[in-house]
Amino acid sequence: MNTLNKVYIIVGLMFSILSFAQTTTTAIGTSKTWGTVDGISMVGLVQGPSSADAQLQVACVFEYTEGDIFNAQALPAKLNGLVHLDEALKGELTNIRKAGQFQGHSLETILITPPAGSMSAKKLLLIGLGDRNKFTPDLMTSVGEVAASEAMRLGVTNFAFASDLKDAGIDSPTALIAGNVVRGIVHANCSENYLKEHKLSTTKKLEKVYLLAGPAFFETAGGGIADAISEAQKK
Questions:
Q1: pTM for this entry
Q2: Taken in order 127, 103, 138, 203, is the CA torsion positive or negative?
Q3: Distance CA 207, CA 219 (A)
Q4: First CA to last CA across the chain, in angstroms?
Q5: pLDDT digits (tens, 9 = 90+) for 26-40
Q6: Helix, strand or coil for residue 178?
Q7: Closest CA to 166 of 46, 51, 54, 56
Q8: What is the distance between the alpha carbons of residues 66 and 8, in angstroms, rounded to a whole number?
């Protein structure tokens, strides 16, 4: 075998390995505790927002545009958490957005009680992401903070969080988004601890947060989560 053929074989193997790495996914239902901050376990979970077993489900949506969670840029229906959530609610996720009952402005919230048996969580909190064309990853720090603050006010000890950016067709930096959500959660918990220390709050202790990710994004999201945890532990 001459040198040129050897080069072709090596290059071919490299492309095969790269292709495999890019298509490798994590099985649905996989969970991993990426770390703990101030007694809150940050758990990565490959699951959709309609199926995650938590006391509260948090989902994020942009301001409504016609067919936004079903269009060609969004994840395919079988992997799209927002589509599954809409189906679980028998189209009401789309209806309340389309009718303007929830406009999805940045950090706007609405609390929904899903019909019995429609989804695993007993409560669903929607948080607005604003105009999709103006989105920046920094917003997710504030979104994480709002999610945790509302969860504690509702008296739950755990909640599941879905950023839903990929579901909405936004090609976002997965690790940074996941890390920023954790940063917001940590800050909200710190503020709540301050209030408790000064006898200004009696909320329950937040014990666990399930950070949902799609099969193709679990490990990448986990890296961002782990970095944010490490950062918080050093403070």
A1: 0.89
A2: negative
A3: 23
A4: 58
A5: 999 999 999 999 999
A6: helix
A7: 46
A8: 49
